[in-house]
Amino acid sequence: MILKGSGTIIASSTGEVSICPYGYAGMATAGMGDVLTGIVAGLMAQGFTPFNAAQTAVVWHALAAENYKKGNCLIASDVSSQLYKFIG
Q: Which three-class secondary structure state does DSSP give residue 29?
């Protein structure tokens, strides 16, 4: 489970919990959750466990948003255009 917000919370069904310290309020725009879901799904398709996929996706998503440096004018496609910097 991912609870998006300031300090996004990631929790597993077995009780593991982590908090992502990255990201900011400007990420609260339409489509951001869709981008995040796509990253999680892509990682799971590569064999990541759901919890590890969620953790990795949340960090990449937040860092890509921060890297764009667009403040409160950020849109979902801005984040997806920055992901290559974290994926390799």
A: coil
- The kind and range of the H/E element at 40 are helix 32-45
Which residue in 70, 4, 7 sits closest to 39, CA to CA?
A: 4
Contact 54, 40 (CB under 8 A): yes
With beta carbons less than 8 A apart as the criterion, state whether 22 and 5 touch: no
Q: Which residue has the tokens 């064999």?
A: 47
Average pLDDT taken over every residue of the chain: 92
Q: What is the pTM of this model?
A: 0.90
Instruction: Yes or no: say if 74 and 68 are a contact pair by the CB < 8 Å rule.
Output: yes
Please give the single-letter amino acid code of residue 24.
Y
